[in-house]
Write a structure and sequence with these properties.
The chain is α/β, with parallel strands linked by helices. The chain is built from 14 helices and 15 strands. Strands 4-10-9-8-7-5-6 form a seven-stranded mixed sheet, sandwiched between helices. The longest helix is centred in the C-terminal third of the chain and has 22 residues. Bound molecules: pyridoxal-5'-phosphate (PLP).
Length: about 400
C-alpha cells in the first residue's frame, strides 16, 4: 500500500475542504503515530484534542470490542444500558442534571441552542437570541456558523440563520450592553481554543454568570475542546468558579469514537418528547466507548496529571520565549497550549516539526498549538521541547 500516492488520490476524490499536511497516518499507539512508510511521530495534535487517552488505548479498545460483540445500535425508541450508564457518570461528576447525546461538537452546540430557544419560548416571553463572543468557534453547521464570530467562516454562506449577536471577547460589559428583551442565552468557550488558546480575565465568566442570573437568561458553555480533563479539571468551568445552565461536550469524550453531548440543569430541561432527537446519538457503541474513557480519566485522576504536566510544559515553553526572539508568548492551560510567534511562520514551523517527527497544529498564521493526549509523559514533553528547540533555532 505504501506505493500509493494518497495525496494525489485525495486531490482527485475529496471535496477541497482541508488544507492537509503531507502525512498519511496508518497506525497509532499511545502518544505516537506511524505513517505509510513506517516513520514514527510524536503526536501533539491528538486528532484535534480528541485522543484524550492517546491512540488505541487498551481500555478504549477493550470497551469497543466488548460492546461491538454485544450490541452496536438499536434506536432511541428503546432503552439501552451504556447510554444510561454514561449519562449517570456525567451527571454525577458535573453540576448538570440531564444529558442528551449526539455525534459531534457542532450537533451538541445546535442542540444546546435549540434547548435555550425552547426555554426562551416557555419562560422568557419568546426570547430567542444568543450572544456569542468575537473569534469564538462553535462548529460548521449553518446556525453554528452564525454563532461562530469569525467572518472568514460566515461570508461564504450567507444568508445565515438569524438569532445570534457577536460581541467582543473577554468584555462582560459588552454582553450586558448587547442584552435585549429577546436575548435567551449567552454562549461562550471557557477559553478560546480555535482563536489561538486565548484565556479570559479570571473574573470574566463569573461576571457573565452574575449578569445571566440577574436577567434570568442562560449561560451556555461550549466545552467541546476544554472538557474531559483537557485543561486540568474534568470541566473547564470548575476553574472559572461558575456553573453553566447548559454544557456542551464532544472532542475528548470518547477519545476518538464520534460522540457529542449537551447537559442541562433541571430547570432548563424543558424539551418534551418529539422536540429534539437523533438516530445515532447515544448509541451503545459510542456510549460504551465514552464511559470507558471518562471512567478511566476520573479513576486515575488524569486531570491532576494534566495539571502537573501542563504547568511544566508551559514553563518550558516560556523558557523558549526567553531563548528565541521569534517565540513571543506562551499561553494556555493544562494540555491546551499555544506558542505565539513574532512573525507569520506557523506553517513553516509546523512543517519543520513534522520533518523532525513532531506533530503540532498551526492554529493562527503566527501561532502554533499543542494539544497532546492527556496521558503524555515527561519524556514526551522533553522530546517535543528538544525538537522545538532545533526547529526554532533554524528559522
Ligand atoms: C471543535 C469544536 C466544535 C465543533 O466540533 P465538531 O465535532 O467539529 O463539530 C465546537 N466548539 C468548539 C469549542 C470546538 O473546539
Amino acid at each position: 500500500m505504501s506505493q500509493m500516492n494518497w495525496p494525489d488520490i485525495e486531490a482527485q476524490l475529496y471535496l477541497r475542504t482541508f488544507r492537509r499536511i503531507p502525512l498519511t497516518i496508518t497506525r497509532g499507539e499511545g502518544t505516537r503515530v506511524w505513517d505509510d512508510e513506517g516513520r514514527e511521530y510524536l503526536d501533539f495534535v491528538a486528532g484535534w484534542a480528541v485522543n484524550a487517552l492517546g491512540h488505541c488505548h487498551p481500555v478504549l479498545v477493550e470497551a469497543i470490542e466488548r460492546q461491538a460483540r454485544t450490541l452496536i445500535h438499536t434506536s432511541n425508541q428503546f432503552y439501552t444500558i451504556p447510554q444510561l450508564e454514561l449519562a449517570a457518570l456525567l451527571v454525577q461528576h458535573s453540576c448538570l442534571d440531564r444529558v442528551f447525546f449526539c455525534n459531534s461538537g457542532v450537533e451538541a452546540a445546535e442542540g444546546a441552542v435549540k434547548l435555550a430557544r425552547r426555554f426562551g419560548k416557555l419562560h422568557l416571553n419568546g426570547a430567542y437570541e444568543v450572544i456569542t463572543a468575537g473569534d469564538s468557534f462553535h462548529g460548521r453547521t449553518l446556525a453554528m456558523t452564525a454563532a461562530t464570530a469569525q467572518e472568514k467562516y460566515q461570508q461564504l454562506y450567507t444568508p445565515l440563520p438569524p438569532g445570534f449577536v457577536n460581541v467582543e471577547w473577554n468584555n462582560a460589559q459588552a454582553i450586558r450592553d448587547a442584552t435585549v428583551p429577546h436575548t435567551c442565552a449567552v454562549m461562550l468557550e471557557p477559553l478560546q481554543g480555535e482563536a489561538g488558546v486565548r484565556i479570559p480575565d479570571s473574573d470574566y465568566l463569573r461576571q457573565v454568570q452574575e449578569w445571566c442570573d440577574q436577567k434570568g437568561i442562560l449561560l451556555i458553555l461550549d466545552e467541546v475542546q476544554t472538557g474531559i480533563g483537557r485543561t486540568g479539571t474534568l470541566f473547564g468551568y470548575e476553574q472559572a468558579g461558575v456553573e453553566p445552565d447548559i454544557l456542551i461536550l464532544a472532542k475528548g469524550l470518547a477519545s476518538g469514537v464520534p460522540i457529542g453531548a449537551f447537559l442541562a440543569k433541571e430547570h432548563v430541561s424543558v424539551f418534551q418528547p418529539g422536540d429534539h432527537g437523533s438516530t445515532f446519538g447515544g448509541n451503545p457503541l459510542a456510549c460504551a466507548a465514552a464511559f470507558a474513557v471518562v471512567n478511566h480519566i476520573i479513576e486515575n485522576n488524569i486531570p491532576g496529571h494534566v495539571q502537573r504536566i501542563g504547568t511544566r510544559f508551559l514553563d518550558l515553553l516560556n523558557e523558549l520565549t526567553r531563548e528565541f526572539p521569534v517565540a513571543k508568548e506562551a499561553r494556555g492551560r493544562g494540555l491546551l497550549l499555544a506558542l505565539v510567534l513574532e512573525r507569520d511562520i506557523a506553517d513553516e514551523i509546523t512543517l519543520s516539526c513534522l520533518h523532525h517527527g513532531l506533530l503540532i497544529n498551526r492554529v493562527r498564521p503566527n501561532a502554533i498549538r499543542f494539544m497532546p493526549p492527556l496521558i503524555t509523559t515527561d519524556d514526551d514533553i522533553d522530546e517535543a521541547m528538544s525538537i522545538l528547540r532545533t526547529v526554532l533555532a533554524s528559522v
